[in-house]
Amino acid sequence: MALAKGVCLNHIARESADVKRLAAFYQQVLGFEQIQSPKFGEFEVIWLKLPPSFSLHLIQRDPSIKLPEGPSTFKDPKNLPRGHHLAFTVSNFDHVVQFLKEKGIETFQKTQPDGKTKQLFFFDPDGNGLEVVSC
């Protein structure tokens, strides 16, 4: 039996050198809404919410800390490592595909053997892997 009770996902955090650019991407592509963020003073944060309850916290990267090479080293959505992405289900899959194409965002699409489930892989502006799944 698990120690924690009533567990649910609260938020995911992403660091970025440009939180405004990253926030705009998630708002335009996936429909996140900006919500009130605390003021930390020494670094910028933007909190986004995807109704009803999922939050994404974008935090300004500390330029003095050298992070190990990470997500931004992946360039081809076809070769996105299986364990490196956030996935979102959408009801307008074909529209999302067209929108990303019009924005010049490189994608990789595949259909599962059931012939019904479509997946689209791409990257946000900071190189974090994303997947959109048809519902």
UniProtKB/TrEMBL annotation:
<dbReference type="Pfam" id="PF00903">
    <property type="entry name" value="Glyoxalase"/>
</dbReference>
<feature type="domain" description="VOC">
    <location>
        <begin position="8"/>
        <end position="135"/>
    </location>
</feature>
<dbReference type="InterPro" id="IPR037523">
    <property type="entry name" value="VOC_core"/>
</dbReference>
<dbReference type="InterPro" id="IPR004360">
    <property type="entry name" value="Glyas_Fos-R_dOase_dom"/>
</dbReference>
<protein>
    <submittedName>
        <fullName>Glyoxylase I 4</fullName>
    </submittedName>
</protein>
<dbReference type="InterPro" id="IPR029068">
    <property type="entry name" value="Glyas_Bleomycin-R_OHBP_Dase"/>
</dbReference>
